[in-house]
Design goal:
This protein is an alpha/beta fold. It folds into 2 domains: 24-194, 3-Layer(aba) Sandwich (Aspartate Aminotransferase, domain 2); 265-387, Alpha-Beta Complex (Aspartate Aminotransferase, domain 1), CATH 3.90.1150.10. The protein has 13 helices and 10 strands. The strands form 2 sheets. A 7-stranded mixed beta sheet has the order 1-7-6-5-4-2-3, with helices on both faces. A 3-stranded antiparallel beta sheet has the order 8-9-10. Helix 2 (70-78) links the parallel strand 2 and strand 3. The two termini are 26 Å apart. The mean pLDDT is 90.
Length: 388
């Protein structure tokens, strides 16, 4: 009980690192950022821009049927109707044929989600979006470049999040990025881009210090034991307001991007991938999503996702949780089945692949706190359950 790895574990960096790090105006070049109070707000603002650009009545936005319920919150706040596309079989991607069939003159945007950090097929989705003059919004809340990768983002608009458990975390805040000058007039004004509230730097530092402390495997059981924190729960919460990201978080953003880039997550990720490949080579019934999706090993994941048989997934998850090894079932359900969305999304489709995906997916931690003994215990658990 008293040793619990969190599923994700990137800390908040509270001071600049030595060396030359990125400056605030250059963090997202060639994109221009608009800083907001959350990633959900950033997505809502991106959808609003898409609605203004196309200017149609009863606008619609295409979303994957498996994902964070904040996708629906943002689209609803923006004044559009969410339309869900099922997933490809055994993949974290939207079914391209379904996306094509769903597009109509009211479609203002397609949201491409980099689930776990695995990118969507942006070229194919761009072609579909272009055919209906829809905006391709890249939801990169779970993906962030750890080097100067000029082609990392490909959306017309890109949404990033700095919330708890994200690649770069400030315990709040987000941004929508653009490089097409058409969007400059469609997104919030310069006052929003520069931020309004000064924030409370001391309060943020105290909050971040406590957060960093509780990420320790020896202490993470404490927040897990507090039900009002809702750790690990997937909850639908309607978005009620949008505001700028506060100045205290903007001041810490360069140091946190630099800290993320210096972290040794990629070494841990390679070790996890090696263990999974070894098990698969021994004939285990296991699908490593990064491998089957052809994701380059140089690209960082937020979590390492697997697909297992339904019953095996549940048994593995239960055992890994008992051992405190940071496994998760991610959202636990397709979007129409998440509490609070059953009525809102009722009757809009069956989504068998999204529901199958939700029942089979398991994620493993890949952050640098994962030790070799932890990894060997994960391997032993998977081997026992998959060979039994």
């Amino acid at each position: 009980m008293f040793y619990q790895l969190p599923p994700v574990g990137n800390p908040v960096h509270l001071k600049a690192h030595a060396g030359s790090g990125p400056e605030l105006p250059d963090l997202f070049s060639p994109y221009t950022p608009v800083y907001l109070d959350s990633g959900t707000s950033a997505l809502a603002v991106a959808v609003q821009a898409a609605i203004r650009l196309k200017g149609v009545e009863a606008p619609e936005v295409i979303l994957p049927a498996y994902g964070c319920p904040d996708l629906v919150s943002a689209v609803g706040y923006a004044g559009a109707r969410p339309v869900l596309a099922d997933l490809e079989p055994e993949r974290p991607w939207m079914d391209l044929d379904q996306v094509s069939a769903l597009i109509n003159p009211r479609t203002v945007a397609i949201v491409a989600v980099s689930l776990f950090g695995i990118p969507e097929r942006m070229d194919a989705l761009r072609q579909l979006a272009a055919g209906s003059a829809a905006v391709l919004i890249e939801d990169s809340a779970q993906a962030f470049p750890h080097a100067d990768e000029g082609d990392f983002w490909q959306g017309d608009l890109v949404v990033v999040s700095f919330g708890r458990g994200k690649p770069v975390t400030l315990l709040g805040g987000g941004a929508v990025l653009y490089r097409d000058t058409r969007f400059a007039a469609l997104l919030p004004d310069a006052g929003m881009r520069e931020g309004g509230q000064a924030g409370h730097p001391l309060a943020l530092r105290l909050q971040a210090t406590l957060y960093n402390l509780l990420l320790s495997p020896r202490l993470y059981w404490i927040p897990q034991a507090l039900p009002f924190l809702h750790l690990g729960e997937t909850r639908y919460q309607p978005l009620e307001r949008i505001s700028p990201m506060d100045a205290a978080r903007r001041a810490l953003l360069p140091a946190n991007i630099e800290g993320y880039r210096q972290d040794m997550n990629d070494t841990t990720q390679s070790a996890v991938a090696g263990v999974i490949a070894e098990l698969a080579g021994e004939g285990a019934d296991i699908i490593a999503l990064p491998a089957v999706c052809g994701m380059p090993s140089s690209r960082r994941l937020l979590r390492y996702p697997l697909l297992l048989d339904r019953k095996v997934r549940d048994a593995v998850y239960t055992r890994l949780r008992q051992m405190g090894l940071g496994a998760s079932c991610m959202y636990g359900a397709a979007l129409p089945d998440i509490p609070g969305l059953e009525v809102r999304l009722a009757g809009i489709g069956r989504f068998p692949m999204a529901r199958e995906f939700a029942a089979r997916v398991l994620t493993l931690p890949v952050f640098s706190r994962l030790r070799d003994p932890d990894l060997m215990k994960i391997r032993a658990c998977l081997h026992a359950r998959l060979s039994g």
